Amino acid sequence: MVQSKIWVFCEHDQGQLAEVGLELLGKALELAHPTHRKVAAVVIGHQLDPCSETLAKFGADEILVADHPLLKTYCNQTYAKVLQHAIAQFHPEGFLLGATAMGADLAARPAARLSTGLSAHCIRLELSSERQLRAVVPGWGGNVLATILCPRTQPQMVTVMPGVFEMPEEKVCDTQIIPLRVDVHPEDVT
Predict the structure, then answer these.
(1) What is the pLDDT of residue 49?
(2) What is the C-alpha to C-alpha distance for residues 172 and 190, in angstroms, rounded to an integer?
(3) Gap between the Cα atoms of 149 and 22, Å rounded
């Protein structure tokens, strides 16, 4: 059973994790652990054991793995379908994605299908006194900062540019690897 409340999408290219996912994992752990919440790294693709091994070294409480041959190559529709089903089943409070080409492309579809909030290009993440995720984004021209809350729907989804947060240090932890249900078919992959 998935217990994590903050999820981090960890994109990869043929098993090589993008650093932004590790940066977000470190920030999520920093936010969640003082409030005794668990953090999950979410990885989608095929033959993901190397990714899971690396994510376990960076402190993820849980690693949610959607591993299937049809997920080997990124496809917005199939990845979004996997995420939408997992979010609907396990109800995370926050979901962090890198503001990369893949992350920005992917974040919008499950957010729209689940009718939840999506804050793009965040530069800071905080937890409110009510333990709600607060996303800080630059306003017009970067002269104004706006704090975005998503009080009525969950998860609050955010994208963050690579390099905003520091890379976490490796640490020994007790990580649980949890397979996600994958319900994709050849006609889903376009």
Answers:
(1) 93
(2) 40
(3) 24
Greatest Cα-to-Cα distance within the chain, rounded to the nearest angstrom? 47
Write out pLDDT tens, residues 88-139.
999 999 999 999 999 999 999 999 999 998 999 999 999 877 778 888 888 7
Our CA angle for 124, 95, 15, nearest 5°, is: 100
Q: Which amino acid is at 9?
A: F
User: What is the three-class DSSP state of 3?
Assistant: coil
CA distances from 127 to 32, 42, 130 (A): 8, 21, 8
Question: Looking at domain 6-183, which of 3.40.50.620, 3.30.300.30, 3.10.20.740, 3.30.450.20 is its CATH number?
Answer: 3.40.50.620
pTM (two decimals): 0.93
Identity of the amino acid at 7:
W
- Residue 6 · residue 93 · CB < 8 Å: yes
Map 19-84 to HEC letters: HHHHHHHHHHHHHHHHHCCCEEEEEEECCCHHHHHHHHHCCCCEEEEEECHHHCCCCHHHHHHHHH
First-residue to last-residue Cα distance in the chain? 32
